[in-house]
From TrEMBL:
InterPro entries: Homeodomain-like_sf, HTH-type_TetR-like_transc_reg, HTH_TetR. Keywords: DNA-binding, Transcription, Transcription regulation. This is TetR/AcrR family transcriptional regulator. Residues 14-74 form the HTH tetR-type domain. It comes from Actinomadura sediminis. Gene3D superfamilies: Homeodomain-like, Tetracycline Repressor, domain 2. Residues 37-56 bind DNA. The keyword Zinc does not apply.
Length: 214
């Protein structure tokens, strides 16, 4: 098999996945997540039902299709932090930048998408799993970055605090969006809240997991 053939095959897979995701999102927004079946998504995407489940084993992941990006985000930010920068400082910097960008990964998804999530107990539960998975991965990264001994609870404590702040701010973005605030108003309020929240962690985590200067 040539590299060109492999490249075309991967491109086809990406296009199929994007088509399924786009058709599913359209149906979910029109009718509500709980009112759409996998078979209806398959029909709209013009693929077999098995094709849908091959790309998205869980129906919830059709709506929340950024699982890997979401779950890895905090650990990736910590891994890529600057010399002399603590984990807290890196996460604060990255979050404020994401607010300025109105990044959908932190919750800027628009009122229709936010309503779709909050109206579905299944999606709310799946999103909670995303946050839990993200906190676990962050704890693992902090343990590795600090050379913590096996069983050391400190990385998990730090991850729980940092994860809780990100979870709270995510929920605040959804809440304000559903209350009818526009993106600019949501961003202004959440930027203020983020500074308060991260500052509250400064006494305990300001000097934790600081990357050594080069």
């Amino acid at each position: 098999m040539t590299e060109q053939t492999m490249g075309l095959r991967e491109l086809k897979k990406r296009q199929t996945r994007e088509n399924i995701s786009n058709q599913a999102t359209r149906l979910f927004l029109e009718r509500g997540f709980d009112n759409v079946t996998i078979a209806e998504v398959a029909a709209a995407a013009q693929v077999a039902k098995m094709t849908v489940t091959n790309y998205f084993p869980r129906k919830e992941d059709l709506a929340l299709d950024m699982h890997d990006v979401f779950v890895r985000l905090l650990a990736t930010i910590v891994r890529e932090r600057e010399p002399g920068e603590s984990a807290l400082a890196a996460l604060r910097r990255a979050f404020l930048a994401a607010v300025a960008e109105r990044n959908p990964v932190i919750g800027f998804s628009g009122p229709a998408f936010a309503r779709m999530i909050m109206d579905s107990p299944a999606l709310v539960a799946r999103l909670r799993e995303f946050h839990d998975d993200r906190e676990k991965l962050l704890g693992d990264r902090l343990a590795e970055e600090t050379g913590a001994a096996p069983g050391d609870i400190l990385p998990r404590v730090a991850a729980a605090q940092l994860g809780a702040v990100h979870r709270l701010l995510f929920e605040e973005i959804l809440r304000r969006t559903l209350d009818g605030d526009g993106d600019d108003a949501v961003a202004a309020a959440v930027e203020r809240d983020a500074r308060i929240a991260f500052d509250a962690l400064e006494p305990s985590l300001g000097d934790y997991a600081v990357r050594p200067a080069r």
